[in-house]
Amino acid sequence: MAKYGIIRMQKFHKDAITGIQKHNQREGENSKNKDIDSTRTMFNYDFVNEDKIKYHEEIKKMTATRVKRKIRNDAVLVAEFFVSASPEYMHAMSPDEQRKYFEAALDHISGKYGQQNILYATVHNDESTPHMHVGFVPITEDRRLAAKDYFHGKTKIRRIQDDFHNYMNKRGYDIERGEPSELQHKSVHEFKKQEREKELKQLEQQVAHKEKEIQRMDSFVELKKAPPVEIRSEKRIEELCIQPIEIEAAKTVRGSKVKVEETDFHELLSFSKELQQTLAAEHERTNALSREIDRYQKENKALKHDLKETKQELQVYVAHQDGEVEKAKKRMREKLVHDFSAEQKENVKDEVKRELDKQYEAHISSLSDDLTIEKQKHEKTKKELVQANKMNDSLTKMNIDYIENYVPKEELDKANKEVDELRKENKTLKAWKEKALNWIDKHVEKIKQVSFFQHVGGIQKRNKRQDQEIER
């Protein structure tokens, strides 16, 4: 018989407190949880509380007077121990012995983590294996709510198993350690899942054994259905032995019947009695086999009925386990979301912000380089416009001087034509200058507002279009 003690620890945050309260105190969940036998719920009890309590209210009372700092929203409010033993060991104990076992376990937890911190110690006798849920609020001696001080690190987690095993051995319980220390700590749900898988394996083995018995019963049924062998009764054989033996023979002068010698008669009589005994023994054995076949038929019928019920239970159990697995996956996803502390969220936000700032600075630096190039082009354009204006003014002055002096009509017409062309050119240059200044002012302001997420691939195309406009 396997004899090992079981203790598991699981931490709960604010969002999970109401759920464990409903489970531990059986508040309207008997119809949903297939592991619970509602007819045995009356045998559950709590070592700490006589009546049902509100976990949140009791936690507030404990922390209001004993915790000096403000409690964080992501703080661990309750650390719960699941205490039990191997099913064979638990079922071998009487209810009083089980109660003493749980009392000893509670003494160990209270002594190690503080009696004043214990919130509840609920024993469940309405599930497949009796067990106890012990919840305590992790308040430290320096008045802090800090579960890490009790359970931070693999060493402290392993010590939960070691200390429990050593204490229960000292209290007289010959149990082995629940599992090797190198195995990963498992939650209460994972432990229950393993226990249900063991029970499922046992049920499958029972089904296989009953199927073999049914096959054996079927062979006996086939034997009984075989045509019966005709056997004379003892009375009829005795009558044959009492009657004189006559031997048929061919008719002679002395008649159709003859008498045998006395020695032959006695030999035939002895043979007849021996045959009678053999037939009687065979008859008794046949009757015994007939009775045994009837008994096996009844057993076969009962086994078929049991097998049918077992298969139905197995189907229900497998469907329930599949549902529990899906629920566990859903709770795990929710737990991952809830357990992501505010500090971790702030760290991620800071990291993302630093990365965005880094990219933004790189983008602004690139934009600054582009803006510098645009300014240089702008200055160059301004210088070219100034030189063009100077040249235009110089030509105008030269034309005036030339006109003031004597100029032939042909040359004057030619000069007037050149002046008109220069004026048009000057007007075009001024218009282009105004357009360039407006474009620069407009696009420089727009560049400042461009998000750095639009920078990749956009600057080169924009520069290309600007160069083309400048060339035009």
Number of domains: 3
Work out the helix count: 12
Which structural class do the helices and strands define?
Answer: alpha+beta
Count the E strands: 7
Order of helices and strands: EHEHEHHEEHHHHEEHHHH
> What's the average pLDDT?
77
Give me the CATH architecture of the largest domain, please: 2-Layer Sandwich
Model regions low in confidence, pLDDT < 50 over at least 5 residues = 180-186, 229-237, 245-253
Q: State the major sheet.
A: 5 strands, antiparallel
- CATH topology of the largest domain, what is it called? BirA Bifunctional Protein, domain 2
Instruction: Give the C-level CATH assignment of the largest domain.
Output: Alpha Beta
What's the shape?
A: elongated
Beta-strand level of the residues, as a percent range? Answer: 5-15%
Helix percentage: 55-70%
**Largest sheet, order of strands side by side?**
1-3-5-4-2
**How many angstroms does the end-to-end distance come to?**
97 Å
Pfam family, one: Mob_Pre
Keywords: Coiled coil
Coiled coil: 186-220, 279-313, 342-435
GO molecular function, one term: DNA binding
